[in-house]
Amino acid sequence: MAAFETIKLEKGLYTTGKSFTKALEELDPSENYIGTPLEGLDAYQRQLKRFDIKVSGRGSDMVEKFFKTSDSAALFPEYVSRAVWAGVEENNLLPNIAATVTDIEGLDYRTITSSLSDEDNNAAHVLAEGDTIPTTNITTTEHLVTLKKRGRMLVASYEAIRFQRLDLFTVALRQIGAYIARRQLQDAVDVLMNGDGTGNDNAITTANVATSGTLTYADLVDLWNSFDPYTMNAIIASPTAMAQILKLSEMRDGTAGLNFHASGNLVTPFGAQLMKSSAVTSGTLIGLDNTCALEQVQAGGILTEFDKLIDRQLERAAVTSITGFAKIYTGASKALAI
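Structure (tokenized):
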């Protein structure tokens, strides 16, 4: 009998300070399956195979399959977390705007701040031995980064869903993930616009278009040009602002049009990635250097109330994610109001 078939599954695996999968991996390392038919599966997926639970595809099992035994019931919260996380990833714009993701174990976190003056940006030459070298001061901020819990309460009786296919139930769970992704993006945009409360809380520099209500290509070029010494390589636009961008004649030339119709990807002369989101105030777009503008801080991944999901077979359980954001360099993000 293979090792993964003898592991005792219990709620304690969710309280080890690690993810459920990591706790399983310590008991049943994936490296032991290299060269076997189970190569490529992680420890959780091997447990699904152990109990013959199919969570996707036309032949997916019903929800009740998880609750056939107490051991298999312990797998259900991880299934919920993974399905919700899939929804987050499908709708997540944060990887396109966050320079780094910091994982923390507690809820208290202080980020760093770095002072870089205009003189420092000009990279003065050190001409002779003994000359002063320009300095960059890196310090820890005095205030904690604000972390917010985003999620949904999952309410459903076991009797109502026990005969539902897991493939269909996954669709509903992915929508919870999509909701979390949208709310986290709103939090990120709020920090970019209004500051993070850690000493970088000055409002974003906002420029106005030359003619109120009308966006021109020259306005975009001026915004791009104002980023020196940073590079504007990403733009998040409200739906109304995005519509105006797409209607610019410069965005409707042959090459740009063919690429957009074929792939949905826009071509811009300055190479910035364009993203649409209602998290941005109507008629506004935010340009940023996504290599140094924003830090994403998260305490764990998708968190589920595992005890309720195991013992009460759903009924009412919270699915949440705790995330916060901090500015790194304030000058690396700017807004344009139409």
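The two ends are 67 Å apart (CA to CA). Residues 93-127+135-152+192-338 form one domain.
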